[in-house]
Specification:
Layout (H helix, E strand, L loop, with lengths): L1 H6 L2 H13 L3 H5 L6 E2 L4 E4 L2 E2 L7 E2 L8 E4 L2 H13 L22 H13 L6 H16 L3 H8 L4 H21 L1
Antiparallel strand pairs: 1-2, 2-5, 3-4
Helix pairs in contact: 2-6, 6-7, 6-8, 7-8
């Protein structure tokens, strides 16, 4: 994760860091506006998602429980503040992550840039959604067996989704602890 980050172009690096630090789905991240970021509380409010078939390109999040508040790591918040200042303190309803034409990032743009850089350093495959899994693994490590908190941070509609998707990581960490 960190090796890939070090070779990403500046145009996608902050989006990558944000994805790793918040676990937002790509569509949620692409629809993010400045009003969604609370610079004082170091958190992001997730309440919309990029949608191809919706007028204006923004619609509801995946499920009701996908509406959530997620903390933002201080190093990422620092970068967001700098971007906000650099862009001249844009209006609250302006998108945070824009392409070179100052419009919403295309669904494939980040994925293509990421895959191009990953190919430079490894033959393994990495997709944008893997950054969400990375975040989940970090949260499971931090919160231990508090699966409810991790499920809420992920915006899963049911705790069983978190257990089915990430339960093996919890079992692996249990095994490592017992072996110690």
């Amino acid at each position: 994760i960190h090796q890939v980050e070090s070779i990403l172009p500046k145009s996608v690096k902050l989006a990558y860091q944000f994805a790793c630090a918040t676990g937002l789905r790509a569509g949620e991240q692409r629809a993010l506006t400045w009003d969604d970021i609370d610079f004082n509380m170091f958190e992001v409010s997730v309440n919309k998602s990029a949608k191809i078939k919706v007028e204006g390109g923004v619609g509801r999040v995946k499920t009701r429980t996908s509406n959530r508040i997620v903390p933002i790591a201080p190093h990422v918040m620092k970068e967001l503040k700098e971007l906000h200042m650099k862009k001249g303190r844009p209006a609250g309803n302006d998108l945070v992550f824009l392409n070179k034409q100052n419009i919403m990032v295309n669904a494939s743009s980040w994925r293509e840039q990421l895959q191009a850089k990953v190919k430079v350093i490894t033959d393994k495959h990495l997709v944008w959604h893997d950054l969400r899994h990375y975040y989940a693994s970090k949260m499971l490590s931090f919160y231990g067996h508090d699966i409810w908190t991790v499920s809420n941070l992920m915006g899963h509609s049911d705790i069983s989704i978190t257990q089915k998707t990430y339960g093996h990581w919890m079992q692996d960490s249990d095994k490592r602890e017992k072996l110690k």
